[in-house]
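Case study 2.
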Amino acid sequence: MVWIGTPDPGRQVAAGVALLAWAVLSGLALRGLRLRQPAFVHVDVHNEAPPPPQVEVRAEIHTPQREAPQYLSYVLPYLPPSPN
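Prediction:
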């Protein structure tokens, strides 16, 4: 809109000014407009951390147990039924 709405001699300058204004305003918007310094709270605590728990790690792979396939007893030679 800036490019189209500006006469020929000043198009590049107007577009550059619009781009800079857009960048500054976007930066302020994305920053959250926090203009004051964040509060710094210093707490001086000297508590010792508890010892780490004793953990036993074992690498095991559990596979599901399969049942043996059950075969039907056919008299050999088995011939399937005729399609006729």
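The helical segments are 2-5, 11-31.
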